[in-house]
Automatic annotation (TrEMBL), chain A:
Region (Disordered): 74-94
Protein name listed in UniProt: PRC-barrel domain-containing protein
TrEMBL record, chain B:
Domain of life according to the entry: Bacteria
Name assigned to this protein: PRC-barrel domain-containing protein
Cross-referenced InterPro entries: PRC-brl_dom
PRC-barrel domain location: 8-81
TrEMBL record, chain C:
Organism: Paractinoplanes lichenicola
Keyword Transmembrane annotated: yes
Entry keyword set: Membrane, Transmembrane, Transmembrane helix, Transport
Membrane topology reported for the UniProt record: Multi-pass membrane protein
Keyword Signal attributed: no
Name by which UniProt lists this protein: Divalent metal cation transporter
Pfam families: Nramp (PF01566)
């Protein structure tokens, strides 16, 4: 069965998947995709966290992200087409 | 209500209907067609799977490599600062490490059944 | 009386932070070398821990979650694991030091070498945690620790140079780096992270609800200043007796002696009872905190309000931590020195603990209208910078001064 760890952080067109929303019937509805290295930061990506002013400004400046919301696509859970990092080879050499 | 898998579920504490800790949401499971959320996964092997690499294998091994426990999402009653289940935790299979330690160590010490109040 | 007993959680937590064995000796040493010129550090530390313990207590009373539970949720599993390893190291080092400290207090009373007492102390500690109710433990050791108040009375009898209290500078013959090293060490131990883990887990053990917000605040604003005042007692009595003689303090015996000089056998007896209660209380605080942090990171069931069999993993961590502490002590390492290494881990753990608490205390999703006001946020941010500055400076200055030598 696919798991959340299969798609979180995965590269798709437009950036990386940082979160996925679902509705009351547990149907996955949309994926939140951001450009840039930081997706989540201490919860400041949500509206409910406000302040302290300095930390919030700093966090939002670091996030500086362009967020796009794309409809959920089941193909997001299939592995990256990029070649897997050669973990077995690395282990053998190191 | 719209919830987010990453923010509202992952790494959040799961508690039973009496507020007793059950585990963390270490990962979540989707249906085969990857269209719906089916279950919460809790246990060190699920957490280790998210870490990946050597560290992930250590974390998995520390739990004796037991499979994560699967909690069907239908059992979730409410999500706030914790994920509240609608049932008592005794209805779920006990975590393997907890059971092993209970059987072999803690449960053998006199007084292990005494409640505080 | 019932109201008095309700604040023993705060008192016990604060005693574990301000007058555990490492603090008793290092604060007395600070008094002997620098007189009262570190008084401001204690004040800064008291305000800092009050600000953050109040936030943490409020988060717990409203959300019913202990703060360590929320740290992984905000920092993510990786960064939280770094925090966990550092926090566990601090807690374990302190636990070992406290078991050694109780044994040293028994050595002062009995004359038998402290290493003989170590296994006995560890066994009694574990039995107490296994069998005795949380609130009973909290009351016995919180209240017995208050016998250290004798130090404050002794301060006025011994009369240290109170004019130094307003000075922020080392006295002649001492250098600035060492002065700063001692200041950072005192500040870090005032804000030591297991205080908030223990305090909020204790709040959950006592089943706080939003109605207990006032209770939490009374605990914070009475307990921590009181703990800081007791630390001041060691600083001041030691400053009065040893500074004029140019003597150093590096043992527990020297730290308790000034009370004996002020009030004879009675004074000495009271202060040793206080040290015994404070170190045993700190040993309980740290051994439970070791279990709390590990269990709350992984989401295990924890706490003394459950039957031990229902929290077998938590009780195993507590048991193993006590055994590790005993093993460390049996290598004959000096228990007092153990806590000095804490500073290295504090540099990592303090920012990673207090930042998420500050952020969660601003989250309306959790706290509704009980989020931080302007005062809590202003002080919170200022202290976060003080903590960061101390964290950055800690290790270089530690190397520079050879650990304050």
């Amino acid at each position: 069965m696919p798991r959340a760890s299969d798609f979180l952080g995965k590269r798709v067109a437009g950036g990386r998947i940082v979160d996925v929303a679902f509705d009351e019937n547990q149907r996955l509805t949309e994926a939140i995709v951001v450009r840039g290295p930081w997706g989540r930061l201490l919860g400041y990506e949500r509206e409910q966290v406000r302040g302290p002013w300095l930390i919030e400004t700093l966090a939002r400046w670091i996030l500086r992200r362009e967020t796009i919301v794309v409809p959920w696509d089941p193909s997001f859970v299939t592995p990256d087409p990029r070649p897997e990092p050669p973990t077995s080879a690395r282990e053998a050499s190191g | 209500m719209r919830l987010l898998i990453g923010f509202d579920l992952l790494d959040r504490q799961i508690v039973d209907r009496d507020g007793v800790p059950v585990g963390k949401v270490d990962d979540v499971e989707l249906s085969e067609d990857a269209r719906t959320l089916t279950a919460l996964l809790t246990g060190q092997s699920a957490l280790g799977g998210r870490f990946g690499g050597v560290l992930g294998r250590w974390i998995t091994a520390a739990a004796g490599g037991a499979e994560p426990r699967r909690i069907p999402y239908d059992l979730v009653a409410k999500v706030d600062s914790a994920v509240h289940l609608a049932i008592k935790r005794e209805l779920l299979a006990p975590p393997a490490l907890e059971k092993w330690l209970d059987d072999h160590l803690i449960g053998r010490i006199p007084g292990a059944d005494n409640a505080e109040s | 009386m019932k109201r008095l007993l309700a604040v023993t959680l705060g008192i016990l937590t604060a005693i574990g932070g301000f007058v555990d064995i490492g603090d008793i000796v290092s604060t007395s040493e600070a008094g002997a070398r620098f007189g009262l010129s570190h008084t401001w550090v204690l004040l800064v530390g008291i305000v800092g821990i009050c600000v953050y313990a109040e936030m943490a207590g409020r988060v717990t009373a409203v959300s019913k979650r202990p703060v360590y539970d929320l740290i992984r949720e905000r920092l993510g599993p990786r960064v939280a694991l770094v925090n966990l390893l550092g926090a566990y190291a601090i807690t374990l080092l302190t636990l070992a030091a406290e078991i050694g400290g109780v044994a040293l207090a028994l050595q002062l009373l009995s004359g038998a070498p402290y290493l003989l007492w170590v296994p006995a102390v560890a066994l009694v500690l574990w039995l107490a945690l296994w069998r005795v109710k949380f609130s009973t433990l909290e009351r016995i050791f919180g209240l017995a620790g208050l016998s250290l108040v004798v130090l404050l009375i002794a301060t006025f009898k011994l009369g240290p140079d109170f004019t130094q209290m307003t000075k922020i500078a080392p006295p002649p013959g001492e250098n600035w780096p060492t002065y700063f090293f001692v200041a950072i060490a005192l500040f870090a131990s005032a804000m030591t992270p297991y205080e908030v883990f223990f305090f909020t887990s204790g709040g959950v053990e006592e089943r706080w609800t939003p109605r207990d917000l006032t209770l939490s605040r009374v605990n914070v604003f009475l307990g921590f200043p009181l703990g800081g005042l007791l630390a001041f007692g060691f600083l001041a009595t030691s400053a009065a007796v040893y500074e004029p003689l140019g003597m150093r303090v590096d043992t527990l015996g020297q730290a308790v002696l000034p009370a004996g000089l002020a009030f004879g056998q009675v004074g000495l007896g009271l202060v040793i009872l206080g040290v015994f209660a404070a170190t045993f209380g700190a040993a309980m605080e740290t051994s439970l905190s070791a279990g709390y942090t590990v269990a709350q990171y992984f989401g295990w069931s924890w706490g003394k309000y459950l039957r031990p069999r229902q929290a077998a993993r938590f009780h195993t961590v507590v048991l193993v931590s006590i055994l590790l502490a005993v093993a460390a002590l049996l290598t004959t390492i000096d228990p007092v020195q153990l806590t000095e290494y804490m500073l290295i881990f504090s540099a990592i753990v303090l920012p990673l603990t207090y930042l998420p608490i500050l952020v969660i205390a601003n989250d309306r999703g959790y706290l509704g209208d009980k989020v931080n006001g302007r005062l809590a946020n202003t002080l919170g941010v200022i202290y976060l910078f003080v903590i960061l500055a101390a964290a950055v400076a800690a290790v270089p200055i530690m190397i520079l001064t050879g650990m304050g030598g």
